[in-house]
Write a structure and sequence with these properties.
Length: 633
């Protein structure tokens, strides 16, 4: 049993001690801070962050990991409209409160510790390694505070001095969360409105005093017994503002003046995450406060969900770490046919694949967290403390836009590959342990139960893959010539590049561009026969002049997940190569990952190129027949 979930993790320590760009993050999080209030140097700040993670790592190992089974046996209940959590669950969060970690990424001015969000996410990984129920609930403390801070950036009532927030409309909420006295929740899902948020029916009607009254029901709300609820609801007339255009975001308090404002309907019974409350919420003339402007709810919720998806990536990473460690330890102790099963060729292959993906996912998570934070902080500086010099301001604007693009590209890949691999690795750990892995005496059965929801909540894996597909195809369609140049460069470098790692990486990029090219060509072929005969560089005007995504995306929709898998592997390989070139001891991980990745990408590309024409034809025929029947009726 570990004494510290930070110090025992060589790969996690590598990112904290060497890989993370602390110079960049330090300047961003401390921007505008008076000299007397900030750490003396980047090194001092990093040492402080590391000390925090060591304390959390020790707490997780000593006070959380040994009691997760006991905690799960102490079932949740709903008594007189109040959620009663496990006594062990409550005790653990009291301990985290004493560690003063709820406000890790929140500015000092608002009661936080002013650490980069990357530190907070690293702490989340360690908690998730012990128990995802705890990490899920932990995330609805600082996660909600950060979301409100993000909304405050867009609120004219917020006061800023030197690029730092000194007063926001949500100060009382943020401070209460930082102190560990409250938490919040994201309230989206309704019966019949899960991934399709345009179907939301919960209504909010403005009152003479400027507040709103909400009516409706929400389901599957994680930590929904929280005091502060960010509720997506309908404020506009569906006739004039249909679908997503009619949604607004509200801040509702579960209790208002000591009385119930939002009723908790029930506590869900789940196969996993059994210590974390998931509830239904009933709004019956519940009082809410508009966040931002009416009709902006979907865009505002996306700001929250994008960070939440990075958080799920780190949560899944913790599960992957636990699954790999469990399988590795068992394989070294279990003797069959005269040797540990870890030295049997098949098991050794499984373990190496788990390890390479574990390291790769961690690389992707830390890369994405830094890009997201850089984009957010630069936007804040440009809005509230822009450089006086026009050229400097323009340079900062370019950096922000680049970081936003990178964050947008990486976020769905993190959510997709980390959550899918958490399920896969938990399942493999169970297989390696054999019969005992199926019992409650060993970790895999719980890891698998907890992992199964990760590809579902905060946007399903399929939604993530469709986001990836849309962005990649639109980039190719908007600038086909640039796409062709990138593809040609990858094909040239796969042969001419002198550095072996760079050459291998270029081969993976070639698979990426070939997959995209195949999908683009099929879309063009289906869209316009005349377009298909044109050079690819001339497609843009012809395609966009008559574009209907619902009808014309079919070849892409079929292969969205295959393409996403290729893109995730390429993104991971790129990051591992970057660190392999900087740190010679990391080279082996990049090389091993790419050897395996090339085989995978080759397989997924073959499926994109050779599979699906018959299925698409059948679907088109069925859709056409249904349309004719409907028209006749």
């Amino acid at each position: 049993m570990s004494d510290n979930f930070y110090t025992d993790n060589e790969d996690l320590r590598f990112y904290i001690e060497k890989a993370v760009d602390w110079d960049m993050l330090f300047e961003l999080v401390e921007h505008g801070t008076p000299e007397e209030d900030r750490p003396a140097s980047v090194r001092d700040a990093r040492d402080n962050y590391e000390d925090i993670l060591k304390e959390i790592g020790k707490y997780v190992a000593k006070s959380i990991d040994p009691v997760v089974r006991q905690m799960e046996s102490e079932h949740l209940s709903l008594v007189d409209g109040e959620v009663v959590v496990s006594p062990t669950f409550a005790k653990i969060f009291k301990g985290l409160k004493k560690l003063d970690v709820y406000g890790l990424p929140i500015p000092r001015e608002l009661g936080g510790l002013n650490a980069p969000a990357t530190v907070y996410l690293a702490a989340s990984e360690m908690i998730a390694r012990a128990d995802t129920s705890l990490m899920t609930h932990f995330g609805f403390h600082a996660g909600i505070a950060l979301s409100l801070l993000t909304y405050a950036m867009r609120d004219p009532r917020t006061k800023w001095v030197g690029g730092r927030p000194t007063e926001t409309p949500y100060d009382d909420v943020i401070r209460e969360i930082c102190a560990g006295n409250a938490w919040g929740c994201m309230v989206l899902t309704e019966p019949g409105a899960g991934s399709d948020l345009a179907q939301i029916r919960t209504r909010a009607v403005e009152q003479p005093d400027g507040t709103y009254k909400l009516n409706g029901e929400k389901i599957f709300i994680t930590s929904g017994h929280g005091q502060y609820q960010l509720v997506l609801c309908r404020t506009e007339d569906p006739a004039t503002s249909p679908g997503l255009k009619g949604l607004s975001l509200m801040l509702c308090r579960q209790k208002l003046d000591g009385k119930t404002n939002v009723r908790i309907g029930k506590v869900e019974h789940k196969i996993g995450h059994q210590s974390s409350p998931t509830v239904s919420l009933v709004y019956e003339d519940s009082v809410g406060e508009l966040i931002g402007r009416r009709g902006e709810g979907f865009e505002q919720m996306l700001l929250l969900m994008n960070f939440a998806r990075i958080g799920v990536g780190f949560e899944a990473l913790g599960v992957c770490e636990a699954a790999y460690r469990c399988a590795k330890e068992f394989s070294e102790q279990r003797i069959t046919m005269g040797k540990p099963i870890g030295r049997h060729e098949m098991i050794a292959d499984y373990l190496e694949d788990m390890e390479m993906y574990l390291r790769g996912i961690r690389a992707l998570c830390f890369e994405a967290s830094q890009k997201v934070e850089r984009a957010t902080r630069l936007e804040q500086i440009l809005k509230f403390d822009p450089p006086a010099d026009e050229q400097q301001r323009a340079a900062l604007e370019r950096k922000m836009q680049r970081a936003k693009r990178q964050a947008r590209d990486l976020t769905p890949l993190v959510k997709y590959i980390a959550s899918e691999k958490a399920v896969e690795m938990s399942r493999m750990a169970m297989q390696i342990l054999g019969g005992v892995g199926y019992t409650t005496e060993y970790a895999p059965e719980k890891l698998l139960r907890d992992a199964l929801v990760l590809p579902i909540y905060e946007g399903t894996s399929q939604i993530q893959s469709l986001m990836v597909l849309k962005d990649q195809l639109m980039q190719g369609l908007r600038d086909p010539k640039r796409f062709i140049v990138k593809m040609a460069r990858a094909n040239w470098k796969r042969v001419a590049e002198q550095e072996p790692m760079e050459r291998n990486l270029s081969r993976l990029f070639a698979y990426k561009y070939k997959g995209l090219q195949t999908i683009l060509v099929r879309i063009a072929r289906n869209k316009l026969k005349s377009t298909y005969e044109m050079p690819i560089g001339s497609w843009t005007d012809a395609l966009f002049s008559q574009w209907d995504p619902k009808l014309d995306f079919a070849p892409g929709l079929l292969h969205a997940e295959r393409l996403t898998k290729i893109l995730a592997d390429v993104a991971i390989a790129r990051i591992l190569v970057k660190y392999g070139l900087r740190f010679p001891e990391r080279r082996v991980y990049a090389e091993k990952f790419m050897r395996r990745s090339e085989l995978r990408c080759r397989h997924w590309l073959a499926e994109i190129e050779e599979h699906g024409d018959e299925l698409l034809a059948e679907l088109a025929e069925r859709n056409s027949a249904e349309a004719k029947t409907t028209a006749a009726a």
